[in-house]
């Protein structure tokens, strides 16, 4: 997606350790016009699938997931990263965070994810695939099915795409970053 790649080149910041910072337009301050275009692109890639729900994980997956849900007129469920005391019928899984270097529990209520659901999972980044694999596990525990996974940015030099391919689910990434250097970003073709 050219618009997105141009924006990453203009406003993204890359750091040692393979981190790309996009907090001026995705992760902290957000550009809703770009986010709408991202939603439109996800519709182009997933609109043909027989889904009834979008699933994401808080916090940065929520904006693109809502754009997609709005355009397809489907509900959006966000998996939580902190386990609330008040949640009923809770399902949980463990996820290792690459950026925070720690393992945490994620959860969702069975009230909003059931065996009738066919979902697309949306997130901001695909790095090592841990968040996506954790959410996939939750969806399976609910008896639901993931029919597609979409990421705004994939870091193809990490293991996520390879690991997710084993799930045999279509994966769509709108910008695939091949290398990240000191303020240098290169994309896959
Ligand atoms: P994974 O679970 O695929 O290893 O990592 C994906 C999650 O880690 C994303 O939800 C995202 O929040 C965070 N993440 C991974 N790499 C980056 C990065 O380079 N920049 C930012 N901003 N977040 C990242």
From TrEMBL:
Protein name as catalogued: Xanthine phosphoribosyltransferase
InterPro entries noted in UniProt: PRTase-like (IPR029057), PRTase_dom (IPR000836), Pur/Pyrimidine_PRTase (IPR050118), Xanthine_PRibTrfase (IPR010079)
Protein family according to the UniProt entry: Belongs to the purine/pyrimidine phosphoribosyltransferase family. Xpt subfamily.
GO CC terms of this entry: cytoplasm
Catalytic activity, reaction form: XMP + diphosphate = xanthine + 5-phospho-alpha-D-ribose 1-diphosphate
Complex formation: Homodimer.
GO biological process entries: purine ribonucleoside salvage; xanthine metabolic process; XMP salvage
Classification lineage: Bacteria, Pseudomonadati, Bacteroidota, Sphingobacteriia, Sphingobacteriales
Positions annotated to bind xanthine: 20, 27, 155
Annotated pathway: Purine metabolism; XMP biosynthesis via salvage pathway; XMP from xanthine: step 1/1
Main location group: cytoplasm
Record gene name: xpt
UniProt organism field: Sphingobacterium yanglingense
Annotated EC: 2.4.2.22
């Amino acid at each position: 997606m050219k618009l997105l790649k141009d924006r990453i080149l203009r406003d993204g910041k890359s750091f040692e350790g393979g981190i790309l910072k996009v907090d001026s337009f995705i992760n902290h301050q957000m550009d809703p016009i770009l986010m709408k275009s991202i939603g439109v692109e996800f519709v182009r890639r997933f609109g043909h699938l027989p889904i009834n729900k979008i699933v994401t994980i808080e916090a940065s997956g929520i904006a693109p997931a809502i754009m997609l849900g709005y355009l397809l007129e489907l509900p959006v469920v966000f998996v939580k990263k902190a386990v609330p005391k008040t949640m009923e019928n809770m399902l949980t899984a463990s996820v290792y965070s690459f950026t925070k270097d720690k393992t945490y529990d994620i959860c969702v209520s069975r009230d909003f994810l059931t065996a009738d659901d066919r979902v697309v999972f949306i997130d901001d980044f695909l790095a090592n695939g841990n968040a996506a694999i954790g959410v996939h596990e939750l969806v399976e525990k609910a008896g639901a099915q993931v029919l597609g996974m979409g990421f705004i940015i994939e870091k193809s030099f990490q293991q996520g795409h390879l690991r997710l391919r084993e799930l045999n689910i279509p994966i769509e990434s709108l910008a695939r970053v091949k290398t990240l250097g000191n303020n240098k970003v290169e994309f896959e073709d």
